[in-house]
Amino acid sequence: xxxxxxxxLIVRNRPLLLAGVMAAMIMQxxxxxxxxxxxxxxxxxxxxxxxxxxxxxxxxxLASAVVLPLAGWLVDRVGIRRMLLFSVTLFTVSSMLCxxxxxxxxxVVFRIMxxxxxxxxxxxxxxxxxxxxxTAERPRMMSIYTxxxxxxxxxxxxxxxxxxxxxxWRWVFYVNLPVxxxxxxxxxxxxxxxxxxxxxxxxxxxxxxxxxxxxLQLVLDRGQDxxxxxxxxxxxxxxxxxxxxxxxxxxxxxARTPLxxxxxxxxxxxxxxxxxxxLMGLVMMxxxxxxxxxxxxxxxxxxxxxxxxxxxxxxxxxLSITLFGRFMNRVDPRVLLAMGLxxxxxxxxxxxxxxVDMPRGPIVISGVIQGxxxxxxxxxxxxxxxxxxxxxxxxxxxxxxxLFRNVGSSxxxxxxxVLLARNVQINHAEIGSRLPSVASAFPGDMHxxxxxxxxxxxxxxxxxVNQQAAMIAYLDDFLAMSVACVAAIPLxxxxxxxxxxxxxxxxxxxxxxxx
Length: 515
Hints:
Elements: H1 14-30, H2 39-46, H3 55-67, H4 71-78, H5 80-100, H6 104-118, H7 121-131, H8 138-166, H9 171-174, H10 176-190, H11 203-222, H12 232-254, H13 262-266, H14 268-298, H15 303-324, H16 333-351, H17 361-387, H18 394-433, H19 446-449, H20 451-487, H21 506-514
Helix pairs in contact: 1-7, 1-8, 1-10, 3-6, 3-11, 3-18, 4-5, 5-6, 5-7, 5-10, 8-15, 8-21, 11-12, 11-18, 14-15, 14-17, 14-18, 14-20, 15-17, 16-17, 16-20, 17-21, 18-20
């Protein structure tokens, strides 16, 4: 057999090895959505509020974002086999600890551990699949990989809802135990050792970026409780974040061997692609963080019903990639991205017109439209980002793209949570000021006689005001994200049209998008 027909990595049993890495990757992608529908139950069990429980999501995403730039260096130093075995072990152990957490502080610590381990599973799984496939097999293998990646967002809310309804929210994390053990066994038996090499790491640059991202996250998450810049803590965190960000930019531009090659930032398409990547991560994770609370607290759906109502987003993504993925290489990616942003904006605009008393139909329709819009956005963004980039920079560029996506997700979840909390207070005060006093219904001496009834009426009215205030706050968040999607479209005018041999395969772009 010709050398070109051999894959770069020869293994004893490829089907079982691929089953192991695919299961590990699905386990990681599943955990990005499976916990969403259980958030209200976690809040009650852990003594958290609606504002602070989102740390369960943001801590996971933030930990992944901080450690991602080290992925390439770690793989070179210890090899893919050791990295996969360590990541699967830590992810499984931290999942068990998350299920056993007794307080919000413990949960956040264990979710950080889970995020640190999960950050490497999806990119390493993609690397193994590509390295164990021949050139002719790669399009088909990447298509299978994409379907597996999509399985997590689709099934996550449904599985999470079923486990929460029929068992306990803790089983959302315990379910990873058998999967993790099976993955470890398959990887131990069939994953060969890969070559290792010495590689310098820009540790100072990584520390600056990690500190800047962490400081920004703390400002967004704690600002509401600490009255923003009236608090010295928030001022210090903001100054540290801004200072480290500025120092990181200067360091990346002047260092001899920076964390990321300088050449990738000189590529205009890639730089603009990072902006869109940030926006995509912000919108997708923000919506997924808001909807479980809306479904369960406003509409009164159970976790299982909430999961089923969230699933159409994943179905829309999967159907659009399956039906139209093969045709996307024939269309200008700028046109596709404009279409995707318009569809996302339309779905969010429809969501901004929901009401407290509403059937399920509009929820499903907007979810499908949003799923199609996401697939028509993520894939063209990857095609644009890598169209004119030198192929030798693709590994570093992929890590930076994932970093921007995770930062966008983390900042987005924190941002919409802050807007939601502030708007609920503002709307409650506005609606309450327009209501007549309950005492006016009991004039004169009758007020004392009917005091118990007036308290009941006051409690009922206050509950209705709270519900309406929260609903309006959710709608305001959806409208803000809808406007952001439309506002980003003019950036496409700056994108160059060059493609040629450097265009990314659609299946690979879809898989990258799903991370």
